[in-house]
Amino acid sequence: MNHDEIVSGLILELRRGTLILLVLSQLKEPMYGYNLVKKLQDNGIPIEANTLYPLMRRLESQGLLTSEWETSEAKPRKYYKITDDGSTVLEKTICHWKKFSKNVNQLLEGNKNDK
User: Any idea what the Cα angle at residue 60 is, between residues 28 and 36, rounded to 5°?
Assistant: First the structure.
């Protein structure tokens, strides 16, 4: 049995939903993609641009983000910002995350004590 492959798969599954939560939480002010990649990476959340941009396009198609091109600078950049619907979804998701992670941590800590 290849434990590393199994762990990698589980981590990937955990990251998917968590990344959505983190992306929404960081876009209260307009931000372009590379800046968001850098901010997440600087906070210990590695993400590739080829993962982030499709995610942001999907969130935009769901009405959770809006985007706008900024062309006044030398290099045009597409800025993303959370919508009112996105803020509502974020708030509800954060509430669920806090309860869920608290319960998960309690169970995990309980399992440590059982050993």
Answer: 45
